[in-house]
Amino acid sequence: MTCQIIALMGSPIPDGNCGKLLEKAISGAKDAGCNVVRVDVPSLKFSPCMEHFYCEKNEGCMINDDFSPFLKRFKGADGFIVAMPVMTMGVPGALKSFMDRFQVYFMAKYVRHMPVITKEQKKWRKTLLLSIGGMNIPNDFDGIKLTMDAFCDIIDAPLYGEVLQNDMDNIKDITTRPEVLQAAYDTAFEMCSAIITDKDKYQPLNE
Ligand SMILES: Cc1cc2nc3c(=O)[nH]c(=O)nc-3n(C[C@H](O)[C@H](O)[C@H](O)COP(=O)(O)O)c2cc1C
């Protein structure tokens, strides 16, 4: 049974604190038996959604850029890890624009009633959220959580778990918090093990 995970990175610093947290989760996913592809979203060249509304009546998106292959790649994936720092109380701009381009999936699911993701796939697809914030304030992750709830619904991969750490301006180095890194590893390992079990149970035999 193959298991394909897409790990989305929302920070522009590949090996910063967010990157270190993501790498731990990727190790957990691989140790559980999944293939993982990491995508550093800020390094992609793509347009935000321009509201052409092509996808309201047609399959796919009329914009052709670095985002385009992900419409197919997201259909083929079994799970997702999404890592991001809080920026201006929400999802960093490049990653938010990436998420917005999945309006194609939204239109297919809710307007054209021809969902991209099959009923079977919905039984095993899952998402893990990793996020860090600089500030030590209440509600630091509220914006991210609202967006993630909507995104997970649109891509049909419900939120399995989250590992959140605020106060990074004081903590400075996430490696001084081994319990947070361990939580990223453990939650990814558990999620990916559950994906493999569920996929085994629900995947039609002829696929
Ligand atoms: C443009 C920008 C906006 C930010 N806005 C917030 C914010 O609203 N709340 C917060 O807690 N931290 C905020 N931060 C701090 C980052 O979340 C924090 O520095 C994080 O540790 C960065 O992780 P990284 O270095 O791995 O990318 C902001 C940072 C930047 C660069």
UniProtKB/TrEMBL annotation:
Pfam families on file: FMN_red
Ranges where the NADPH-dependent FMN reductase-like domain occurs: 4-110
UniProt key word Flavoprotein: yes
Record keyword Flavoprotein present: yes
Keywords from the named record: Flavoprotein, FMN
Cofactor(s) listed: [4Fe-4S] cluster; FMN
Coiled coil: none
Domain of life: Archaea
Molecular functions (GO terms): oxidoreductase activity
PANTHER family on file: IRON-SULFUR FLAVOPROTEIN (PTHR43278:SF2), NAD(P)H-DEPENDENT FMN-CONTAINING OXIDOREDUCTASE YWQN-RELATED (PTHR43278)
Family membership: Belongs to the SsuE family. Isf subfamily.
The name this protein goes by in its record: Flavodoxin family protein
